[in-house]
Specification:
Length: 402
C-alpha cells in the first residue's frame, strides 16, 4: 500500500513538472491536442511576460490574493457579468438587463466594495454615510458610467418609502453638506438590489480625490416625508458587520479605453516586439513543435489549435475566469490551387499564380487570420479588488490566404 501511495506521489510530481513546462496546448499534426513540452524555462518566462503585457498587468498579483472573498457582492456581480458575456447561466439576482448597454459599450468594468460606514456624523443623524476607495481606476480611461447598488430585504409593512443618495461635500468652513444625486421609490415589501446612478460624484472623485467624502443614504416614509428613518429599519443592508457578504453595498464603474491608455498599450506592444526580436532564435509562437517540415507542407491553410492554460502558468490564484482560452492560430501553406476552404483573397490568387510561374518575382501568399474575436478576463488586482476586462483581437475565428 505504501509503495502504491509513493508511486502515485511520484506520478503527480512528474505530471506537475510536465504541466509547468508550458502554458499552451497545440495540435500535434494527428488531430490531437497535446501539451507543448518544448519550452525552456527562459522561453516560458518570455511567454509569461508577453501574456502579462497583453493583459495589461505589470506583474502577477501576489498569491495571498487567492484568499479574497469571491462570494462578496462586488466580485459576484462581475462574475455574473462575465457569465453573461460568455453566454453561461447566471445564478444571482443583480438584474443585469439594466446594465446591458453599459456592459456592451465598456472595455473595463470594476467594482469597489464599501470600505466603511459612518453614522451620526451628519445633521441628518438617522441616515448613514458610505465610504468607497476608488483610487485604483485605470489611468486615462474614459468613464462610461457609475452605479451604487444597495440591497434591501422585504419588510412586512404596508406603504412606500423613498431612498435618497446624496454626495457628501465640504463647504469653505469644512462643514459637510449634501447634494442630491438620485432617488428611488419602493414598497416596504420590495426585496432585491436597488440601483442608483452616481456617475457625477464618481467622476468628481476621480478628478479630485480629496473631494471623496462618500455618499449619504437617507430614507423617508411617503406618509411622513419630513421624518427621516434609519435605513436598517426598512431592510437596507448598510453595515460591513452584517452577516451578509453577498449583499454588501458596492459601486460599479464602466470604462472605455482612453487615448493615454491606448498609447501605453502601443508602448507595451513595441516592448513586446523588441523582446520577440531578441528571443526569436529561442522560440517562435507561430511554430508548431509537433509538426515536422514534411507534415507541415501536407496541410493547407486552416485554423489550428492553440489553447493557453492559465492553471499551467500557475495564474489560477489571481485570474478568476476563465481557466484558459482557445486562441487558435493560422497555419499551413497557400499552394496552387487555392481551394474555396482557404478563403483566399483575389490578390492572394494572383500572387500565387505569379509565384508558380516565377518564384523569384513574388513570394507565396501567407496563411493569416481573416476574422478575430474578443475575450473577457476576470481577475484580482493587488489590493484584492476585482476587475473585468475585455480584450479585442485575441481569438482567431477564421483563416485565409493573403
Amino acid at each position: 500500500m505504501k509503495i502504491y501511495v509513493f508511486l502515485l506521489f511520484v506520478v503527480s510530481i512528474l505530471n506537475y513538472i510536465c504541466a509547468s513546462s508550458s502554458g499552451f496546448y497545440v495540435d500535434n499534426g494527428k488531430d490531437q491536442t497535446v501539451l507543448d513540452k518544448s519550452m525552456s524555462r527562459k522561453q516560458k518566462l518570455n511567454f509569461e511576460k508577453t501574456m502579462l503585457n497583453i493583459l495589461g498587468v505589470r506583474r502577477k498579483p501576489k498569491r495571498h490574493i487567492a484568499s479574497s472573498n469571491l462570494y462578496s457582492s462586488g466580485p459576484q456581480y462581475l462574475l455574473d457579468v462575465y457569465n453573461s458575456l460568455e453566454g453561461s447561466k447566471r445564478h444571482t439576482d443583480f438584474n443585469l438587463d439594466k446594465d446591458l448597454p453599459s456592459v456592451i459599450e465598456s472595455d473595463v468594468i470594476m467594482t469597489f466594495p464599501m470600505k466603511g460606514n459612518d453614522v451620526n456624523n451628519m445633521r441628518h443623524e438617522k441616515g448613514i454615510r458610505l465610504l468607497f476607495d476608488v483610487s485604483d481606476v485605470p489611468v486615462g480611461d474614459t468613464i462610461v458610467g457609475a452605479e451604487l447598488r444597495l440591497h434591501k430585504f422585504g419588510i412586512d409593512e404596508i406603504g412606500n418609502i423613498t431612498i435618497s443618495v446624496y454626495q457628501v461635500l465640504l463647504d469653505y468652513n469644512g462643514e459637510r453638506q449634501l447634494a442630491n444625486v438620485n432617488n428611488v421609490n419602493v414598497l416596504y415589501t420590495y426585496e432585491g438590489w436597488l440601483l442608483f446612478n452616481i456617475t457625477s460624484p464618481f467622476t468628481t472623485w476621480i478628478a479630485f480625490p480629496s473631494m471623496n467624502e462618500g455618499l449619504y443614504i437617507s430614507v423617508h416614509k411617503h406618509s411622513n416625508p419630513g421624518h427621516e428613518i434609519h435605513p436598517e429599519t426598512v431592510g437596507l443592508v448598510s453595515s460591513i458587520y452584517d452577516d451578509t457578504e453577498d449583499r454588501q453595498p458596492f459601486v460599479t464603474a464602466f470604462f472605455k479605453y482612453g487615448s493615454s491608455s491606448l498609447k501605453s498599450k502601443i508602448r507595451r506592444i513595441r516592448d513586446v516586439r523588441k523582446r520577440r526580436q531578441k528571443t526569436e532564435s529561442d522560440v517562435s509562437y507561430n511554430f508548431n513543435p509537433f509538426l515536422s517540415e514534411s507534415a507541415w507542407t501536407l496541410r493547407s491553410c486552416q485554423i489550428q489549435t492553440l489553447y493557453v492554460n492559465f492553471k499551467d502558468l500557475n495564474w489560477q490564484d489571481w485570474i478568476i475566469a476563465p481557466d484558459g482560452f482557445a486562441s487558435y492560430y493560422c497555419g499551413g501553406v497557400c499552394d496552387f490551387p487555392l481551394n474555396a476552404h482557404m478563403n483566399a483573397t483575389n490578390h492572394a490568387i494572383v500572387q500565387t499564380l505569379v509565384n508558380l510561374i516565377n518564384p523569384n518575382e513574388a513570394p507565396k501568399s501567407t496563411c493569416a487570420p481573416l476574422t478575430l474575436g474578443s475575450m473577457a478576463v476576470l481577475y484580482y488586482l493587488e489590493d484584492n479588488s476585482v476587475i473585468l476586462k475585455k480584450y479585442k483581437n485575441m481569438v482567431v475565428k477564421s483563416c485565409g490566404c493573403h
